[in-house]
Write a structure and sequence with these properties.
The complex is a heterodimer of chains A (307) and B (82). By secondary structure, chain A is of the alpha/beta class. Chain A contains 14 helices and 10 strands. Chain A has 2 domains: 228 residues, Phosphoenolpyruvate-binding domains (TIM Barrel), CATH 3.20.20; 51 residues, no CATH class. Chain A starts with a helix and ends in a 9-residue tail after the last helix. Chain B has one domain. The chains are: A alpha/beta (307), B alpha+beta (82).
Amino acid sequence: MNEAIIGKPAEKRRPCRSMLYMPGNNPGMMQHVPAFGADSVLLDLEDAVSEREKDAARRLVSHFIREVDFGDSIVTVRVNGADTPWFERDLEEVIPSAPAAVRVPKCHSPEDVRHADDLIGRIERERGMALGRIKIHAMLETAHGIERAFEIARASDRLEALTLGGQDLTADMGVQKTRDGVELFYARGRVVMAAKAAGLMAFDTVWTDIEDMEGLKNEARLAVQMGFTGKAAIHPTQIDAIHEAYRPDAGELRRAFRIVDAAERAQREGKGVISVDGRMVDGPIVARAFSLMELGRLYGIGQEADL
Amino acid sequence: MESSDCMVVVSPSDGYALEYGGQNEAIFKRRTERIVREIAERYAPAEVRIQDRGALEATLRARVETAFERASREDGQGGSER
């Protein structure tokens, strides 16, 4: 069986359905991260931290990453934007603690990403760290950034994800963020498509009304439907609803098990073509079946019998 | 101040001194003395006052360092608070 058909899963990363924002200056909340069960955590130095406490927050976050156990959650940090006086200092303090990724807000252009990439690279070299291991998640939250999404997505090898910032974007567009989110429809599609074309993950914006769980569920379903690989959460109570939206459909998962089974059999028998349930299956579908299976494991479904 | 955090005040002084108080004072006194002394050695002599509401070691370190950094930026003029 050749590689092209088995379609090595393009995304070999751990599924990252939820990214939980935590205020970077709040030790009480940050130390409870393992209990929240988010796939990843986003320690925030930007909007959640007042100007007077920027220095305290970045110091706290870098100590936390080094010394505190975040359980199974992947640790990322949102730094302040490149147009602020805190950007460089944030990176200088946070990069040596080696988070999995840094979320760079307000990316308007590929230069913004390259600028962050250069700085991170410089710090890695100065500290003798592995080069390029810390990834960048570019946050698109201006009309300009959205229109240049694909260029931004290809700006650096360090890029791992595009993320949509719905609050700032709707403000920039001069519209209100509504419950059904029609105003963000184009931006969502654009961000997802650019990310997919560049082989990156795509994260949807937060649902800000923590009382409105129905609204969150609808928006999470929409995000899944549109192809986002994950969604940010502004509060721990939102994590379950997001994970639920990503639960694979039982029928689809059953088919995925059969596809993987057929692909593995074809590989053993040296066949190049697979057919499942009487239909031809090609590389991308096999790749999707593998990632669905991986997703299923997060819900305790490891084999067809578990369904 | 929220729980799991601590308040640190650093004031310039002729020699090092630590005043430590809080709900877990007795349990964490020695830990705190060791950590604060270790950090204080990197800065000019100062008197350190800490009110602890159950801070983890990482939190304590971060708060003490921030207070010292702020105090040294202010060129020793008056205390610095976190």
